[in-house]
Amino acid sequence: MPGNNSTYNSDKTKSNSNAYCFRRSKLCYMVLITLLCSISYFFGVYHNTYANGTTLGTTSHKSTNKNCLPTKTNQTSLEPIVTNLDFSSRHSASEDEISTAPLMVPENVYDFPPCDIKYSEYTPCEDLTRSLKFDRDRLIYKERHCPEKEELLKCRIPAPFGYKSPFKWPQSRDFAWFANAPHKHLTVAKAVQNWIRYEGDRFRFPGGGTMFTKGADKYIDDIGKLINLKDGSIRTAIDTGCGVASWGAYLLSRHILTMSFAPKDNGHEAQVQFALERGVPALIGILASIRLPYPSRAFDMAHCSRCLIPWGKNDGQYLIEVDRILRPGGYWILSGPPINWRNHLRGWKRTREELNSEKSEIEAVAKSLCWKKFAEKGDIAIWQKPLNHIQCKASKKLNRNPSFCQAQDPDRAWYTKLETCLTPLPNVSAIVDIAGGKLKNWPERLTATPPRISSGSTDGITEKMFKEDTHLWNKRIAYYKTINHELKMKGRYRNVLDVNAHLGGFAAALADYPLWVMNVVPNEAKINTLGVIYERGLIGTYQNWCEAMSSYPRTYDLIHADSILTLYKNRCEMEDILLEMDRLLRPEGSVIFKDGMDVLLKAKSIANGLKWKTQLLDHDDGAHTKEKILFAVKIYWTASEKQEVSL
Fold it and tell me: Does the record bear Transit peptide in its keywords (predicted)?
C-alpha cells in the first residue's frame, strides 16, 4: 500500500503540472491574440482611409435614352484601395501631346458612355431647339426650359478634339484657346467694337465693348470719375447683357466682383462661354418674365452697356427688378441708347423722336422708383437708389404708381414671376439710416457679421453661429490641403462652384487665392442664406439641382459638394446630379463631396461609371465621424478627330 500511495501522489503531481501548463499556454495564446488585434486596430486607425471598403449589393440602371444606355450590373463588388490620388493637371497649355485612350473601367459599376459630339456644348435648360416651343413674346422662349425626366441624357458630354486646359489667370483674361470654344462669329460681328479677335490657335480679348471700343479699363476709369470705385464700398456688381464680360473682367483688378449674364442665342454665339473660358464669373440668363435668380439688396452696382433691354416698357417691370436686387444707396449705370443720343443719332439709325421718347420713359420709371439722377457725362448716365423708403412712402401717397408690394418675399427668386410693384426696403427710424443695415467696406466685409444675421432677420442663424462657421471652414480648408495638395497651389483652380454654400464659409476661406466661387443656395435649402453671402461681398445664385445649371459644359475647375446628395435624396436621382457635375467640370477638374458614408459609397460607384478617379477619406473631425469625404478627379478625354470632322 505504501508503494501504491507513492504512485498515486506521483500521478497527481503530473496531473497538476499538466493542468498548470495548459492554463499557462491558454493565457499566453489569449495575450498573443489580444496583442495582434490591438496592433491591427491601431494600424487601421493610422492608415485612416476607407478606399478599400467592401460594397455589397446590386446596382441596376435603366435609361430611356436609346443612344446612351448604361451597363446593367448585378454582382457583388470588392473595390480596390486607391492611394496617392493625383489632382494635378496633365494637359496644360504648353503640352502638345493629347491622349484620348480610354482607361480600364472597374467591373460591377455604373458605366455611362460618351454622348454624341453634337452635345459638346449642350446646355439642357437653354436648348435652342426646345426653346422654339415657347412664347416669343417678351423673349420668354429664351428663359430656362428644362428637359423632362425621360429626356435627360445618360451619357458623358465630350470635350471638343484638341481641348486644352485654359490659360492661367490673369493671362486668361486676355486669351482663350480656339479649340475649347471653336466659334468665330463674334470675331466678325464685333470686330469694330474690339470684343474678340481670332489669332492662330487662340482668341484674344482686347477688352473692348459696344460702348467702350477703346477698352474696358478706360471706360471703368470714366465711371470711377463719377462714383468711388476705390474705397471698397462697391464690391458686388451685376452686368446685364454682358457680351464676353470684359467689364466684369477688368473690374476684378479693382476688387469688384461682377455677376455677368447674357442669353444664349445665335446672334451672340457663345458669349457667356467665352466669359467663363476667360476665368470671369458668368451665367446664361435673360431679363424677361421671371425674377433674376438673386436675393433682394444683393448688388452695390448694376450696369447695362447697350444691353438692348427695353427699360421703360412693360410698366417699368425690368427696372423694378433691378431695384429689387440693388442695395440701398446702390448705383445703376446705363450707357448706349438712348444716353447721349444726339451724338449717336446717325450711327444708331433711329429717329430723334424715338430716342428722345425712350429716354423720357426711363427717366420717368427711375423717378417713380424714388431714384435720383446722380450723374450724366458723355455716354454714361448714373442713377442712385435711396438709402431707405421714408420719403418714398410719403411721395407714394400722392402717386401710387408703382405701389409697394404687399405680402411678398423679396428674396424668393426661383421661377418667380416679375411684378410691377416696388419691393419695400426694411424699416428705419431716421432718414439718414441705411435700410437693412450698413455694410463694411471690402475686405472687412468678408468676415464682419452680415446685417441680415445681426438684425435677426435670417431665421435660425445667430452671430455666434456665423463666427463658428467662419472658423470651421478655415479649419476644413486646411484639412483639404493636406489631402489635395493642388489646393495649396495658387492658380491651380480658377472657376470654383460650391453647390450648397450655406453661409459662404468655403468661399471666404479661399478669398486670398486667385479664384472666384459661384456660391449656390439650393431652392430646397431649409434656410435661404444667399442674401447673407452677398452681404459678405461674395456672389452666387439659386439653383434646383434636380435641373441643369445655366452654364456651359466645362465651366468649373473645382466643385465643392457639402451634404448636397443627402439634401436631394428622394427628390431626384443621384446619378443625374453627378452627370450634371460631370458636364460642368473641366477635364482634370476636381470634386470634393462631404456627406454620409452610405451616400458616398453610392456616389463613388456612380463616379467610377463616369470614369472619375476617386478616393474615400475620413472627415476632418476624425475616423469616428459618420460623415466622410470623397475626392474625385475627372479624367482627360475628348471627342476623336474623326467625330469633330464629321460634325
Answer: no
- Give the end-to-end CA distance of the chain in Å, rounded to a whole number: 112
For residue 376, CA distances in Å to 7, 222, 320 come to 124, 11, 21
Euclidean distance between CA atoms 444 and 446, whole angstroms: 5
Determine the average pLDDT of the residues in 46-60: 38
CA distance 527 to 465: 14
Residue pLDDT, tens place only, 251-284: 999 999 999 999 997 666 789 999 999 999 999 9
CA distance 381 to 604: 53
CA distances from 125 to 21, 139, 540, 576 (A): 79, 15, 19, 14
Tell me the C-alpha to C-alpha distance, in Å, between residue 599 and each of 156, 159, 473, 585.
22, 29, 22, 21
Q: Give per-residue pLDDT as tens, 451-477.
A: 999 999 999 999 999 999 999 999 999
Residue 363 burial by CB count (10 A; 0-12/13-18/19+): exposed, middle or buried? middle
Average pLDDT, the chain: 86
pLDDT for 339 beyond 50: yes
CB 519 within 8 A of CB 538: yes
Helix (H, G, I), strand (E, B) or coil at 492: coil
Q: How far is CA 392 from CA 323, 451, 554, in A?
A: 13, 23, 46
How crowded is residue 409: how many other Cβ atoms within 10 Å of its Cβ? Answer: 12
* This prediction's pTM: 0.84
Checking if the pLDDT of 357 tops 80, the result is yes
pLDDT in tens, 550-582: 999 999 999 999 999 999 999 999 999 999 999
The residue assigned the cell 434636380 is 546
φ, ψ at 205 (rounded to 5°)? -110, 100
Beta bridge partners of 202: 177, 199
| Alpha helices for 239-339 (secondary structure H) | 246-251, 271-277, 317-325
CB–CB of 616/605 below 8 Å?
no
Q: Which residues contact 127 (CB under 8 A, 6 or more apart)?
A: 145, 147
In the block, residue with C-alpha cell 491601431: 42
Instruction: Give CA–CA dist 566/562, Å, rounded.
Output: 9
